[in-house]
Amino acid sequence: AQSVTQPDIHITVSEGASLELRCNYSYGATPYLFWYVQSPGQGLQLLLKYFSGDTLVQGIKGFEAEFKRSQSSFNLRKPSVHWSDAAEYFCAVGPSSGSARQLTFGSGTQLTVLP
Amino acid sequence: DVKVTQSSRYLVKRTGEKVFLECVQDMDHENMFWYRQDPGLGLRLIYFSYDVKMKEKGDIPEGYSVSREKKERFSLILESASTNQTSMYLCASSSATAIFNSNQPQHFGDGTRLSIL
Prior knowledge:
The structure holds two protein chains of two kinds. Chain A is mainly β. Chain A has strands at residues 3-5, 10-14, 19-21, 24-26, 32-38, 44-50, 56-58, 64-68, 73-78, 87-94, 104-105, 109-114. In chain A, a hairpin with a 5-residue loop joins strand 7 and strand 8 (64-68). Chain B is mainly beta. Chain B has one helix and eleven strands. In chain B, strands 2, 4, 5, 6, 9, 10 and 11 form a seven-stranded mixed β-sheet that branches.
């Protein structure tokens, strides 16, 4: 069965510092990978996705993520964090064939941004 | 703009009550989902539906049921609410081939925070 691990429950960074959120997955075939962000009181918004091709994908709000098959990882990065990036971030993995209906989510990483 | 609307942002009910959570999407999506979100556990899939009147169990269906009589509406039902069902509930929808082609595989509502007293 597929699974997603986000090893960091909570991360604190200063505004303007760089950010990396970790995501490791377990999946039997080529995965479809996603990062979502959830601002307080809101639903989830898609930041970026990886289906195939270039392993470095660009998303909205200046985020990027790199797919590393050898490490089963899909880490999210941002070179300079803004106070508005404070939110909870979820990594998710989906099936690469067959039913396209389900995503498996990680437990989330809460990001705090210090002024 | 695409929209998934959950009927209540906050809901307080009592143990043993029958509770209905409603979700409506305006994107003509085939797939709809109900998740619950708990601290440290992320999102866990309760039920999903891939067509009108069709439903499948997710990872944690116990204590819940669903109804999809119309394509745009997906209801989550707590037959007899219990305190361990206090949680944030998120509804989502996607098109049938969304995961391969769409920019947004699943669209989420803003959630319903349900408290069972």
